[in-house]
Amino acid sequence: MKMSSIPVRKFDAIIVGAGGAGLRAALQLSEAGMKTAVLSKVFPTRSHTVAAQGGVSASLGNSEPDHWHWHMYDTVKGSDWLGDQDAIEFMCREAPNVVIELEHFGMPFDRNSDGTIYQRPFGGHMSNFGEKPVRRACAAADRTGHAMLHALYQRNVRANTQFFVEWMALDLIRDSEGNVQGVVAMEMETSEIVIFQAKATLFATGGAGRIFASSTNAFINTGDGLGMAARAGIPLEDMEFWQFHPTGVAGAGVLITEGVRGEGGILRNANGERFMERYAPNAKDLASRDVVSRAMVTEINEGRGCGPNKDHVLLDITHLDPEVIMSKLPGIREISIKFAGVDPIKAPIPVVPTCHYQMGGIPTNYRGEVVVEDQVVKGFYAAGECACASVHGANRLGTNSLLDLLVFGKSSGNSMIDFIKGQPKDLPELVMNDVERSVARVARLDNQTQGANVNEARTAMQRTMQAHCGVFRFNDMLQEGVKKILEVEVMVKNTVIADKSKTFNTARLEALELENLIEVAKATMISAEARKESRGAHVRDDAADTAENPNGRDDQNWLKHTLWHREGNRLTYKPVNLKPLSVETIALKTRSY
Amino acid sequence: MDEVDLKRILWRSRRGLLELDLQLERFVEQVLPTLTTAELAVYEQVLMLPDWDFLEYVNGKSVCPDPELATMIARISAAQQ
């Protein structure tokens, strides 16, 4: 392919991804009169933001007194002090503004009788610096994410945002100084490769939960922005931190609510043993999420897992009255029959800790600017789950994910507007090195006649991540995991697809997605192996709970952000910003609930 | 309906919700190749539904008001692992 024959489309701003963060940023830009393009693999309202049910937090204080500073405290504590306190202050202070704005955009929030937004309690939301629960979560029934996408999408259409739906971005374009010039993208319908050139480019591509065998994430969550950033030489931050839920249906990822254990459900290993009795003699199956997850992984690791691959345990409710199951646990029977092929009245449900949310990502500041070695990468921005501002640190507080999308979508949009205004009217000459690399990647798939099957390579990656780098981690398993994931990478570089056609070639798309996932998988495994402490969602068997290091957290050595660099799989570290914008530092202490 | 249309339908069976992805993955594999052109057109309409409505219909929590779509959704729900 001749580089000069590739069409170039020119914009002020390009946004990759049309979930909550992408749409919020696009709106900011379009309403400011910027010529804005949004690229999305799927129709915007079918982005994974749609799955968010819980709500969005803001210290509106509609039901009882609340304050952004208390919200900030909860977020810092939730992050196990790995979150940057400037970004966290910014987010919590902005929260009431972005929620009210969203209301004005037409978001149908649940309301109080006086017309104000109804707020409900949520785990970890406390008043007066951890004193007692506070009602802070705003929701639109149980479809908050859905309602948010619809409100933002409608508003964008009105503001003349240009949508390129069913387009997949392939690679970032950087000039010789590293400034970002846009992206190379492929139209699915025709497989045509097009350069999208702009003054400012935002990645809002979401998470990469599909690196794990068991994940609640939709199939589209393949970390495309993270893969593109890594290939372009941008490090990925804090990728060892992933939020897990203890009980997803093994092999599917659909969650089984913790209420099942509340109603008397019992976890059993391959021997039929109620193993929680050994780990938590008092609470047993009702022990906290972390304790249950760790016990499940320990059972699997020690060879007492169930099934042909000994890779899950069983959640048994066969002893419960079928009427209790039907009345108190509606939906569970359906889920189990549908996704595990098991009627839980007759046989136990196979379950496994399941990945839910990615805390790490492309390193940014609270303005959404991508930052590498203290320098802003000119023209490059990231927001939402693919970005690491870092507000979630080592663990995310519930309802802060939707808030993240709104606050950092908007702040990225504003930063981009300022940057675009300071740029010369005409776009600079394109540097084609990255374009050539991107075209070569696609050509490799078109020309390859032998090699690894895409599904097999993906399964190998997912099983390796799940077994070696799941919710509870062991030094020897991590070390072996690093070797294994690098072997899987060799497979991914040699994938072959049978279908070489040009129109909606899903086989090719999946192969390209896998090339993004593998970057995230390597970053996760290598960062996790290196971090020799437990903090937030990164929990190691060998990081002991001592008086000096409560819960295995080692602030002396590990109060720092990881940066994984694709080139040579190198790790560097940078300090956590403990200095908020206007208030005093929230001082380190043991995280306990 | 040509091969391009079929492949487009295949891609649009990717959703924002995991439960739908899993259910449609089966349907697409087991049933889609057997559909008539007219049935494919109905399936395309089903794919236009908002994800949560679609999931509620698939799970039988409510019934799609359009009988033609409801019939197709019943076939989607019936696709087994």
What does it look like?
The complex is a heterodimer of chains A (593) and B (81). Chain A is an alpha/beta fold and 593 residues long. Among the domains of chain A are: 247-353, Flavocytochrome C3, Chain A, domain 1 (Alpha-Beta Complex), CATH 3.90.700; 433-540, Methane Monooxygenase Hydroxylase, Chain G, domain 1 (Up-down Bundle), CATH 1.20.58. Chain A has 16 helices and 22 strands. The longest helix of chain A is centred in the last third of the chain and has 25 residues, at 506-530. By secondary structure, chain B is mainly alpha-helical. Chain B has a single domain, classed as Flavinator of succinate dehydrogenase (DNA polymerase, domain 1). Chain B is built from five helices and no strands. Chain B has helices at 3-12, 18-30, 37-46, 51-58, 67-78. The mean pLDDT of chain B is 94. The chains are: A alpha/beta (593), B mainly alpha (81). At the A-B interface, helix 10 of A face helix 1 and helix 2 of B.
